[in-house]
Amino acid sequence: MDMFNYGRDGMLRKIAGLALGSCIALTAMPAMAQQSCTRTALEEATQSYVAAQQAGNPSLIKLAPDAKLQEQMEPITLAAALLNKPQKIDFHRAIHDTQGCESFVEVIITDPAHPYVLGTRIKLTGDLVREIETLVTDADDWLFKASNTLAYSRAEKWDMIPMEKQGSRETIIAAADAYLNLFNDPTVRVPWGSPCARLEGGIYTAKGAPGVVSKEDSCAVGVPKNTPLVDRRYLVDQDLGSVVVLLRFGNSSLPDSHLFRVENGLLRYVHTITVCKTLNCGFPVKPIPNPPRG
Hints:
By secondary structure, the chain is α+β, with helices and mostly antiparallel strands.
């Protein structure tokens, strides 16, 4: 600590040390305050976002004066955002990261005039929303069929996990990363659950009707090879055993989210939202069958 060495004057050293300690404490307090928030605050922010999107009225959200908005992982003005266009929301599911002070909302809109599936990240600072980032998918995007997404997603069980059975943030993220790493490394061991169901656009890997669970339901149905999934950002909800990973998909760097439910360290559900640059990301468009009836 040479910078605090003032010869033999111990008093100066002590004063300097106290001053530095005070500065560190004062500097750290705002940072610590920004690193976490309550689940209630995040739930309220989520509900305000859903209400605002339904009404097409962003003023229903307590936006910070310098709030940042993105769509498709690119900056957008509030005036140009989908948030200004009223939407009839059929279903939404949210996860909340109290450590990162962020929420992620899966929003499903089946309006025949223009169906959408949205994935929206909301960032809080205090009681103000500082960031809203939305992935907007519709008819041009990967395997899109909002009515199927609604039927399957709404039927799944994403209930709260008792504290004594909750996985750590590290365990939940590791399960998600193993799945994502498989796209570029076929030797990765993925903690597949049994059952496990993957919802990718309007395609579901479980074979039964929505809500019908079978031990044969599997997420291990293959993934593309040599496909980098990069620029990963994580939002974790330990109460729901969930993590969403926002990332760039493949060599075309497509905006993408992968939402996971992890139970007992094993994958239970996987939901994907992928924004294509070309119709169906350049793959042939094939009819997507409706869900089987129970």
